[in-house]
Amino acid sequence: MIKQLKIEGFKDQWRDICLTGLDLFTSDNVNGVGKSAVLESFKLAVLGELPGRAKNLDDIMKFTSHDEMSVGAEYDDGTRSVCFKRKFYREGKQGERRPVLIDRVALKYEEGNHWILQNIGAASIGFDPNEFLNMSGPKKLQWIIAHSPESWAMTQEWVLLVFLAKLTEKYLGAGLVSHLLAPYGISGMEALYDPKSPAPLAVLIQVLTEAFEKQEPELWKIIDRVLDSCCQVWSGSASGEENLKSIQRFLKSVSGERKGAIREQGSAIACMKKGEHLPVLDSADTERNAVRALEKEMESLCIALERAKVCHQSERKREERKHWLRDEISRLANQVPSGNENLEGRIAELSQGQVNLLPLEEELERVKVAYDLSCEECNAVQREEKELSQRTLLIREKAEAVDSARIRCPVAESIVCDTNMEPYRSALRAEMAELESSHEKIQLRIEELERNKESNHLNKTSASTRLETAKTWNDRIKRQLEELKEKQAFIQREASRLSGMANAYRNELFELERNYPFENEKLNPAPWEELESRKVVLLAEKNQHEEKLESILREEGKRRSLKEFQTKKRESEKELEVLKVLETLAGPGGMSREIAVSAAVALEKEVGEALRLLDENLKFAVDLRGREMVLGWNHDEKLIPLFTINSGHFMLFIVPFLATLVARLARLREKAGKRTLRALCIEAEALTPGNLEILLNGLSRMKDAGYVDNVLVAHYSSVKDPALLHGFHEHILKASEAVANAA
Question: Could you tell me the pTM of the whole model?
Fold first, then answer.
């Protein structure tokens, strides 16, 4: 249950309220102290339910004059305690203006709100008693169905089972349905609407399906197709009642389409029956066989015709080939090149005009040898002259040293010889004179050799020039000879080629004339004209048979189409019948009515039990007779509608009604393994103190009986007497407290 409620700024209230599970909020007959704010903040904290005049979350900040506010609570399920708080800011980034704190961990609004709804498990039943009682009968039924376990148990499998059971009852008999479902503890169709039924739905569907497939396989194909379409309409995000309405709209739409199709099929059948007559199938086979025989004969005729054309075309081509070969042989004979004898004379003449290079080469070689010898001899004399010059230079140095009469020791320059060197000088002068005479002779010899060398060089150059000139002349003659020989070879090759082609053409012409000697006489007549005439006759006959066959087949097609349309119309009529049955079953007077009856019976029983906790003499009744559904007080076996009794008694009847709805919702959620917070927020301003005591006593007993976890009641007048509170903790609110807490 919720143990603590904390309000910070909501409707400018600042309160920290400890809750006991039975809490009464009063004032000393003073309005505007915040009783409604406490109840609305409780619903906002645990449900995220907006206050009455707020249209969306952005309107929340209209309920405070501050830039931020929050509502929070502490939840305890006996094993752990969780604190959660919803905060709201007037300004901030998108997604950060409405954070939700779970044990001080901040989450975005969507995540935090989902966590609270899943883990705290509060569920809202929006209920305005006066508005509810003024509703029409169908709308009351719809509201009862939407807030009943019978409706919440309306799954796709369950709806499919009810549809299938109703169709089995209609087409195969109610006895078969009872016989098939009896082993699973279901005595009849009424037991299918009990949400507490333990029977496995998938097994029941399989049993009914197998029975239908076995006894009415053709009808089952239609039913199976319709049920599959209904399953495709079902949405997992919508409630069972909403899905049932969607299925009804879908079935109504499909029924309209089938009615239109039946009308169109009926019109088509009526048109076909006007010229109805049965064709003779034997004549169709006769015409078909005649057409096939003509086609075979025409095929053979076309082959023979094609062969004749090919043969005639080949003969014409061979004759054309003969004429062409004769023309080519004549043309090739005129194209044989001439002038080969002139080329041979010119080649002989050029061959005689070549220069003999051997004498020139021998002369050049001889001159080269003489030139090389003169060069070697000249070089040897020059070396001798060089050696003589070096020796003369040495003697001259010695003479100069002797003339100075101071000969220094090569070891020690300070030692000087003063010996008389005249004899030695005379010898040196004689030797020098002899060397100079030899040098002059050598100079003369060198000059002579140089002249001889120059002469040999000129002879060598002249011989080389003559040889090169002769080679150039021979090369030019050689090139001319090569050109002439190449031209001669080309003439010979061309003559050989033309001669070979002419011989080949002659041989081919000979073979053609030998193998086909009389073709010229066969070319005049056209051998295929007779075949062409026969083909035209066969084609005309074939067209006549095909037209007759087409007429017969057209009549046969009409007969088959008529039969097909009649079959489709019967199937459409059966499908329309199935659609109408399911449409009625999905409508307000069908499955919804049965669910409403089942829900009303259970609701009457459970609300009566809760009402007796307030007063043993009070009884609750639901009347479903007629077109209206009436809720009221059963007094002396007479139903007194609730809207005819005073407001105090009205509240006493409505509170057990709401507590029962909350308890029924909690049982369904607990069966699905979900947490559930069972809480009632009641504004009992209209009750007198006496009726308030009865209400508090009954709510206390309801809590002890497990109907609710938290009850929050608001009343204008304080009680203060514990004996009259019956276990309720009274919170007497004062406006000054909210101001002090804010400070």
Answer: 0.50
